[in-house]
Write a structure and sequence with these properties.
Structural class: alpha/beta
Strand content: 15-25%
Number of helices: 12
Number of strands: 11
Low-confidence stretches: 337-348, 353-357
Order of helices and strands: EHEHEHEHHEHEHEEHEEEHHHH
Radius of gyration: 22 Å
Length: about 350
């Protein structure tokens, strides 16, 4: 939560200029500590439905120990689901109509599995546009994760993602390139982010769209950017929400697909994720799997217990800090009815006051 400038101490103004969240004392007197209502449009397939909930809920819940968060998961009817997935959604999720009637302080849109090179041909394309257009007009800020980022760049900014020709898969070093933005205030200037994608939106495309780039990697490209106003839409190309074992489970799944003949090549090791010891274990496992596969024998069990113990998480604390900054700014901009800024002098075209710095 923000500092309150309860005196004329120059330190408060200095911190504000440096990007800290500082609320004027008179404004603080008119605020009550209240709950925040945050939606999660979960577009992930059934197998990842609950895990995606946990990952984003955890980031929100750990970001702030004072505010109370009400999470509102929903999905799109156009997404195909099996019996278990449909039952989960019907029992625990809200409909988009309920979301619109309730109103939200903020929204997170997850990634999704796709089957078409052109996102506009996906069955969820039009329903997703409807949600994003509604959020743009009615929600203080929306975080778009991975596929959602690519979708918004395509339909709102006419920037289509480009296939890399390979899978960008692993944990990559990143740098903060715009330290003045409140979303990266007090965030490590260098940190890691997991990526798992075949497609990319380049720095040049973000710039052509007039977006503000905050964090990028020399090898993995742009990770964090925002709409031109600095806050209405927040774009993630990576997966800062991932658990420590998320990439391991993806790799295990791809090994299983090779064993079943569902992919022709054995999956490559992920970049910067496995320790040297783990890599040696996985290289040995690959040799055994390939041999068993070629001879029609039973494939050996994946050595997950041996690998899990050596995994490091080098991204979660920074992800938590970014989300904390996001939640804090949402709290300050919205009021109790989640429709108008809490201060009448906030410029809706520059809600963060970035142009004054």
């Amino acid at each position: 939560m923000p500092l309150v400038a309860n005196s004329a101490l120059p330190t408060f103004e200095r911190l504000r200029r440096e990007g800290e969240l500082v609320v004027p004392g008179d404004a603080a007197l008119h605020q009550d500590i209240r709950e925040l209502h945050i939606g999660l449009l979960n577009m992930m397939p059934d197998a990842a439905l609950a895990a995606t909930e946990r990952q984003f809920f955890r980031l929100i819940g750990e970001s702030n120990q004072i505010a109370q968060f009400y999470m509102h998961p929903f999905t799109l009817d156009a997404l195909q689901r099996g019996p278990e997935g449909r039952a989960h959604v019907e029992k625990y999720y809200e409909s988009f109509d309920q979301i619109k009637a309730l109103g939200l302080d903020a929204l997170i849109i997850s990634g999704a599995n796709v089957t078409q090179p052109d996102l506009a041909k996906e069955p969820f394309w039009e329903p997703l546009i409807e949600v994003i257009d509604w959020a743009y007009a009615n929600v203080t800020s929306t975080i778009c994760s991975c596929l959602a980022t690519h979708a918004v760049l395509q339909f709102r900014y006419a920037q289509k993602r480009k296939h890399l020709g390979y899978k960008r898969w692993g944990v990559f070093p990143h740098r903060v390139v715009d330290r003045r933005h409140p979303l990266v205030a007090d965030v490590n200037t260098r940190f890691d982010v997991p990526h798992s994608r075949f497609n990319d939106v380049t720095r040049a495309q973000f710039e052509q769209a007039g977006l503000r780039i905050l964090v990028e990697s020399e090898t993995a490209g742009v990770h964090l950017a925002t709409s031109a106003d600095g806050f209405r839409i927040v774009f993630f190309q990576g997966h800062p929400e991932y658990d420590t074992v998320s990439l391991l489970k993806e790799y295990k799944r791809e090994v299983a697909r090779f064993s079943k003949g569902e992919r022709p090549d054995y999956p490559p090791l992920l970049a910067n994720y496995f320790s040297p010891k783990a890599q040696a274990i996985l290289d040995e496992h690959r040799e055994r799997v390939v041999a068993a596969h070629a001879q029609g024998q039973i494939v050996p069990e994946f050595p997950e217990p041996l690998i899990r113990a050596s995994l490091d998480n080098t991204w979660h604390d920074t992800a938590e800090a970014v989300v904390d900054n996001w939640v804090g700014k949402v709290y300050q901009i919205t009021n109790h009815d989640r429709k108008l800024p809490f201060q009448q002098n906030i410029n809706p075209n520059d809600p963060l006051g970035l142009r004054q710095r």
